[in-house]
User: What shape does this take?
Amino acid sequence: MSIKVYDKTIFPGFFVNNTIFMYKKVFWIFILLIFLTNSSCRVRSTKIDANYDRFMENVLQVEVIDIIAKVNNYWQSNHPKHGDAFWHRAAYHTGNMAAYEVTGNEAYKAYSEAWAEHNEWKGAKSGNKKNWKYSYGETDDFVLFGDWQTCFQVYADLYNLDGEKDERKIARAKEVMEYQMSTPQNDYWWWADGLYMVMPVMTKLHNITGNERYLEKLHEYFFFAKELMYDEESSLFYRDAKYIYPAHKTNNGKKDFWSRGNGWVFAGLAKVLQDLPGNDPHRDEYISMYNDMAKALAGCQQEEGFWSRSLLDAGHAAGYETSGTAFFLYGYLWGINNGFFDKNDYTTVIEKAWGYLTDIALQDDGRMGYVQPIGERATQHNVSAETTADFGVGAFLLAASEMVKYLN
Assistant: This one.
């Protein structure tokens, strides 16, 4: 990395314990042996530099994995019972599956499997298609509401991990999405959060089934959402039609772009591009928005590394906020790790965001604090070190898992 990440005053978030000092001691013993046995000073110096760089990368990966364990073990140990498959729990499990990918911790996978079994591999459970709705609703008739479809991402991931495929895991997902795609409506994603909730479902199911209809409808629904909520001037999303300027303004008369709402979109674009075929006719459109949002978000990050709840008006809802920040960090890291962003453009953004998440948001007991509770706008709820939530933990696990890859 370009900075001395082993200097605690520069990148303190990695120092959750003293493990790194033990690793450094072992490393320098190893270096001393190289020094004593190597006859060429120039070769010796080159080898020491290369070995040290590799060593520090490995140490830092271990440190991040330690942080993942601290956060995820705290959450799971304090929430041993599984709830329904509504969006906030499902969003946690998208992060838990990312944590499983980089740690190989089978307990993480088992936790998501148990949650899926608890919910019968379904979202909303109504079997009467005549009653299926897609306005906001928390009961079983709201099968077509995207907040009940987020769980299908997790079910698809678990299905893909099986050596011998269990079609039961994705049967409900296919039933629901294929029925939805058969309808003439295109306004299913009427709120910004919906782009994270459902866009990745459609790319995942496309890759499993080979059904091109998933990608066609993905763009149709995306285009509706973009036309409704995307502000071309700011390259940011309004949360939904109620918050579009100038009908709605911040207390200071500015456009009000909710941090977490934009975090959902930015992270959702990363997840879509992860699975989208290279020859998709709309790929460049998704990439263009992804890049434009990255530039816009970099310009409104706060000095302490977080993003305020109202992105362009920090005074509208002052103070720390973790969920949006974690989703943004995930989006930046995934973009760099997969060649969509230039690392040099966003190194400072990443370092500041990681510093906030690990030095301020992360509490000593493993709680991820300063998560704005469930809502839809910047000014809802008081936020403190004590406020946490499943979706906020999931967002952090996504970001931390990409940080492990970033350090490789």
About this structure: The CA atoms of residues 29 and 35 lie 10 Å apart. Residues 84-406 form a domain with the Glycosyltransferase fold (CATH 1.50.10.10). The beta strands are 230-231, 236-237. DSSP finds 13 helices and two strands in the chain.
